[in-house]
Amino acid sequence: MKTANIGIIGSGIVGSATGKGLKDLGNNVSFYDIDISKIEDLKKQGLQATTDLESVVKNSEIFFICVPTPDNNRKIDLGIMESAVSELSKECRKKPDYFLLVVKSTVIPTTTENIIIPLIEKYSNKKVGNDLGVCFNPEFLRESNPYEDFKNPDRIVIGEYDKKSGDVLEQLYLPFKCPIIRTNLRTAEMTKYANNCFYATKISFFNEIHLMCKEIGIDSNIIRKVVQMDKFYKNHPWEHGHSFGGKCLPKDLNAIIAFFDQYNIHDPMLLKAVRKVNEDICTLNAAEVESSQQAALHPPEKELFFGNHDFVYKSHRAEDY
Ligand SMILES: NC(=O)c1ccc[n+]([C@@H]2O[C@H](COP(=O)([O-])OP(=O)(O)OC[C@H]3O[C@@H](n4cnc5c(N)ncnc54)[C@H](O)[C@@H]3O)[C@@H](O)[C@H]2O)c1
């Protein structure tokens, strides 16, 4: 494997685990952070770390952006990301050769395309795709065990602007013995949210069961253990795109919701939402079947194109509509 010169922009939990993990594979890694205490700490561990962005940019050809994307009023705050990308891009103006920017921070779908790439092009005066590549590469590590988790991934997701960007990043990850999933930028961004929302939903689901059980004197620990032992559990929930049905699922969902509603003991909100989503997908699928039947009868004169770039254009210029 060819070794790479890597710059880590933001050397906190994700940045330091990423940098240390990639250094272990033989790459040259420079850590950058605006927080001097982080840099001193990394230096004490014998790592190459600095608060001088210019030197990191000069010595690296692959950059991992690992800055915070915090919550602000229940929305993502991209302020830190925007300023980090702008500063990095200004320094990159002088870079003579092709380089790769990898966004590792969690950002909502379309952010890399609609916000980050325009900032890179504006401040670097370079063209993504020609002068540099861009990838979004979500990190699935846990805060409690970042370094070990980074080194032992169960899958690596590479969201790529173009094939060349993805090829460069994949080279770096080849020593990892796990599946590498290559996709477009927004799909990769969404994988991280789906993963975290799934965990959040699972916990809230059992909390709802717990609240229901508590009201009628049932030990929810026994319930959880029994559900966890279900041998169908692993495969069954991964289906999607169609509603659940059959003899039991709709009937039993209705019955337990009705029971708690009737006695006004606990409002099973999540179960009601589950039912609503099921009804919505049913309606949508029925409408799609109807429209495909119509389309077969009356084929459209011209195909509409809703590819990536078309969407980027539209979502970027809402005032056109
Ligand atoms: N912590 C996790 O378990 C975890 C897991 C997966 C993904 N993420 C995501 O990764 C991103 C980073 O999270 P984290 O937990 O490593 O955050 P962190 O706060 O531990 O580290 C971020 C670092 O960025 C530095 N920084 C801030 N502004 C900067 C700038 N302009 N230039 C350079 N450095 C700057 C900070 O000083 C800090 O050291 C977030 O988007 C987070 O959601 C976190």
Could you characterize the architecture of this molecule?
With 321 residues, this protein is of the alpha/beta class. It has 2 domains: 5-194, Rossmann fold, CATH 3.40.50.720; 201-297. The chain contains 12 helices and 10 strands. An 8-stranded mixed β-sheet has the order 3-2-1-4-7-8-9-10, with helices on both faces. Helix 3 (53-59) crosses helix 4. The radius of gyration is 24 Å and the shape is globular. Residues 301-321 have low confidence and may be disordered. The site of nicotinamide-adenine-dinucleotide (NAD) has 25 residues, from helix 1 and helix 4.
Strand order of the largest sheet: 3-2-1-4-7-8-9-10
Under CATH at level 1, the class of the largest domain stands as Alpha Beta
Mean pLDDT: 90
Radius of gyration: 24 Å
Distance between the termini: 50 Å
Q: Which small-molecule species are bound to the chains here?
A: nicotinamide-adenine-dinucleotide
Domains, number = 2
Keywords:
disordered C terminus; 321 residues; 10 strands; two-stranded antiparallel ribbon; 51% helix; 8-stranded mixed β-sheet; globular; Rossmann fold; alpha/beta; binds nicotinamide-adenine-dinucleotide
Lay out the secondary structure.
Layout: E1 5-9, H1 13-24, E2 28-32, H2 36-44, E3 48-50, H3 53-59, E4 62-65, E5 71-72, E6 75-76, H4 79-92, E7 99-103, H5 111-124, E8 132-136, H6 146-151, E9 156-160, H7 163-173, E10 180-183, H8 185-215, H9 220-228, H10 249-262, H11 269-297, H12 308-316
Parallel strand pairs: 1-2, 1-4, 2-3, 4-7, 7-8, 9-10
Antiparallel strand pairs: 5-6, 8-9
Helix pairs in contact: 3-4, 4-5, 8-9
This protein binds nicotinamide-adenine-dinucleotide.
